[in-house]
Amino acid sequence: MYITEYISNEIKPGKFSYSPNQLLEVVQENKLTHLPMFKGLDFIGNISEEDLIELSFENKVVDYTSYLENFFLSDSSTLLEAIQMMYTNQANILPIINEHSNYIGSITENDIINTFANFPFVSAEGVSMLVSIAEKDLSMTAISNIIEANNGKILGMLIVGYKDDSVYVLLKFSSSNLLTIGETLERYGYQVIQKFYNDEKQELLQSRYAQLLKYMNT
């Protein structure tokens, strides 16, 4: 899950000598929130689309220094770190800088989505089950043992949130013993919140997930 294999050089960074209109054209053509900026050979930060729109009315080369946002990833970062940084900075592109402070490319939101879409946890056929339990009693080992003891194959487990003293875990597995697995989990103190099947309509999944988020945020 290191970002090294997902680094791209398709999007050319902006230069300090470019006009706001030139930079804005690159941003809008690639549907970016920000553009990595260079002064000579040095990476100096990122400029947002909003600032470029404001500056574009001047239609001349300007001093971008006060508009730059200094965020980037190292080439040893993971995809999860990339997601967190994108969320923190409300950005859909991140510049990648190596240990020698050299710019080696970027990673975009679409790169990450396409990568995760191919993970077995997302793409493989199976059953998704949302369970909750007191945080102090959560055991990934116990969940694994229950699923595997009932001839299930685990595809992934993901902690999706907390509410009060409970933790919510999304499970994905392949098994024909769904009822037995659910009953066994409940015997061990897990509450089965919802089961999602591959043949359910996407609208129904989205509706139930939205209801869960609303419940957890109240």
TrEMBL record:
Record key words, sorted: CBS domain
InterPro entries on file: CBS_dom, CBS_dom_sf
Signal peptide: none
CBS domain: residues covered: 64-125
Top-level lineage group: Bacteria
Pfam hit, one: CBS
Gene3D superfamilies found in the cross-reference section: CBS-domain (3.10.580.10)
SUPFAM superfamilies: CBS-domain pair
Protein name: CBS domain-containing protein
